[in-house]
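Appendix B, Record 12. Input sequence as logged:
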Amino acid sequence: MSTTTGATRVTLSSSLGRLTSTFRAAPATRQADLVGRFRGEAAGPWWVRVPAPILLGATGMPRWVGKEFIAAGNAGGLRCHNLVERDEGVEPSLPMSARMAPSRLDSRPTLLLTYERDAPLPWRNVTDEVRSLGSGLLLGLSFGILPGVPLGAPFVLAPWPADTTPG
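Logged structural output:
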């Protein structure tokens, strides 16, 4: 995956600095543009991407493959859950609430995803922030997976191809 936001080209292996500056420059994502399933991948240098699946598995979300956003009634809100791969196919895991809010990174609007209060640790303390890279691609930062680490772990979401949409 690679995309361009302004003059910045971003790939899954871009540096944390480039991903963070791209996130800061990216526009807020409109909730209406998010309904559907998105395939997810960890982003950043190899030392972030390679251990990501192991960390996700050790914290209760093995074989994470993305997120699904579902319209929540007439008010225009969203519900969200993670998608994990199981032997039977892809299924929802760990629901989240979604709302527009100021980013912890730069106070600009972002789609803020929060886990339920009864989610297992560390997830109840984790928040994801998502912004648009254009062409349906989203750049996210996940805060709180590693307590005390102020940087967000980057991930990219891309629209799930229609011919392989699970479920």
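The chain has a mean pLDDT of 86.
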